[in-house]
UniProtKB/TrEMBL annotation:
GO MF term list: nucleotide binding
Residues annotated as domain Gfo/Idh/MocA-like oxidoreductase N-terminal: 4-123
Organism: Virgibacillus oceani
Name this protein carries in UniProt: Oxidoreductase
Domain GFO/IDH/MocA-like oxidoreductase intervals: 132-259
Amino acid sequence: MTKLRVAVIGCGSIAKNRHLVEYNSNPHVEIVAVCDIVETRVQDFANLYQANAYTSYEELLEAEKPDAVSVCLPNYLHAAVSIAALNRGCHVLCEKPMATSREEAEQMIEAAHRNNKKLMIGHNQRFVASHKKAKQLIEQGDAGKIYSFRTTFGHGGPEGWSADGRNSWFFKKDQAFIGAMGDLGVHKADLLRYLLNEEFTDVAGFVETNAKEGTDIDDNAVCILKTESGVIGTLAASWAYTGKEDNSTIIYGENATLRLEDHPDFSLIVTYKNGEVVNYELGAIQSNDEGGQTTSHVIDHFVDCILHDTEPLINGEEGKKSLEVILAVLESSKAEKVG
């Protein structure tokens, strides 16, 4: 079988640690090109993966005509570069958040439809074993009616992860648009939509910059969310959790409480109202900490969808719905401050 010719646009940490590694491990993929505005960086990756190096994504798309691209750029470039690639006939895997506005997201979706190409957004939480098992248990009724939830995603901040450290685009509002909520909160909005199989109809939140000096980007947020059926809960996103990363979710149901990624040994703990406790060992969640799972499963899913002409689990419409939750939280926080 002919291999998919793939290009990665943006060679920061997410490309280095996820996209390039996982494409390289997929037997159906050939990495043909990499692109980054930092010449030394892109040349290093080109040498490592025996690919062609570019500092202009337009030149890459014109010269290479890849089958698919990963867009691993600062948030403000996601829409423009994804649309350009789709218009060139490429399938696109875009990092989250998919865009900086509803309008941009809609333009990306329209470009994918118009060109009959796949558009997938890089939300990896749906592929985590404990999350998939929890969804199965909820769907088959083990937890009964769901009443509430608590979810958190926090770590020490992108300076410990990003290729450029404290000088990263993550801390520049004109490039990032949104901070911890776009980096981490949008993952949890997507996860909750997946687990509960519902949309959020009411959103409120406080979004603050109180931990990182010298930036006006948000680094701490707490949100209250309500679904169409009345399930309520909280979502917290933070770049100010010192020590170990927190990536936990708790679902409170009529018959059971499900604790996801909240124990060092058991990735899912189900406590039933009759006192029975079931501990699941399902493998570690993907993490920026040492010891996190080595594959996100995002790349393999994207490749499979192209090869078998199936719709990605997190397509453009799904990415947009998760983005809209975060945008609504920002609007709520802004209204609170004005009021």
